[in-house]
Amino acid sequence: MAEKITDSEGREDLVYIKTEDGSYRGWRVDLLIDPLSSKMEEKFLLCSSCKGMLRDACFYEEGLRCGVCIPEGVAWQPVKMNREIVSDKMISCPLRKRGCEWSDTVSTAIHHLEECEFFPVLCPLGCVCLEGEMKGKVMKLEKRRIPEHQRDSCPLRELVCEFCLNKVKACEMNPHLEVCEHFPVPCPNRCVIEGEEGTRQVKRRDVPAHLSNECPLQKEECPYWVYGCREEIERKEMDLHEREFMHIHYRLSMTDIKLKQIESSKDHKLLEDKLDTATERIAFVENENLILTKKLSKVKHIEENLDTANTKIVNLEKQISGKDSELKSMKEVLYSYTLLPTGQLEWKIEGVKQKIENKEYTYSDPFYVGLYKCQGNIQWNYVNTGKVGVFIYIMKGGYDDKLHWPIRYKYTFILLNHINSNNNYEYTNQVTKEDLEKYPECFKRPTQMGNRSFGIASFISNTEILEAKYCKEDSITLLIKIELLPFF
Q: What number does CATH give the domain 11-118?
């Protein structure tokens, strides 16, 4: 069998018989160090189907076959003795033709190939072959040659450019040198260094500066170019050119001076005309400025009068604002004596079931009894008794300094019946003198947002409040009535 390996994991190709359908059968017989000596030994050690040394030998159709040659669906039992005999046979390395001298038992061949220095492996850097059957594929070398390959010949190994000291892949070094800014290139004019042979070498990045400032062969315009000398001379010949053409340069410069004098005379006349025009314009502007100054003085006088008028308006507005405050206070006092002493709130509460389950505190919108600001409060499942508590607490309001404290009132809680309006659930009570003495913090003038609440802790049970006659679409309607009572 050929020793060609198709990929980096083709070890089985070397030790087993590979058939046309791609499956691996018995062990290769040609690897045996001592060939089979008799027909009897061949009969018991070779597969009758693939003719390879048996793998898990078993009886089939009056003969021995390896485990992979038995048809699918056929129950078989390996012959343990044959497995041991085959596993102990001595074979040589499948890569012996490449120089490997290893030999050992059949059972260790695959493990040996994992370490064999002659086994072909892919280049760790991933370089590809440029010719032959493997062209375009990752290069494969014997394991022992990988270090040398990575060090000396792999096109993807990193090299250091000797000019710019940057790291560059070996396959990219030549293109890099073509653009490296530090690579020495010959002067474009082929100038030389005095006393040396060959063209002067300059770093690629320094070529423009060399041509502009140093190169003796770089052509430059004659200094008298502006006067009409249209010669371009090499830098080293410029002094000689100026000496030889001194008289011509002199004529050109004098001619240029005369032309400039003529132009200067024309420009002088033009400037004088412009000066006269500018003088007339200045006089006109000064006259206009005087007129504007007078107008500005009048505007300032008007602005001063406006400021005085605005000050008077502000003072009048303050006086009016003070009168408005006095009028508002008078209205509030008057209002406190004219409002009815009763208050009423119709409070619709939604999501009753969830509020009972969560034992939430639920607060109504504030409402007024006279000028006293109040708010309702429901405590569901109060103190784990299964009852619903309803309370009222007095809130801080804008008229507290005009009201009488402590407050005393009669309160009524009515749970509306949605089915029979004449059969509502109702509770009525009033604040007594004993309540004022026992719970003064509930009825005194509020110093914070609101006083402590006062009411009934067991108004109705959770079960009763969820009955259909009170609870409709998971909501109830509670009517709160408060009537102010006379003071003791």
A: 3.30.40.10
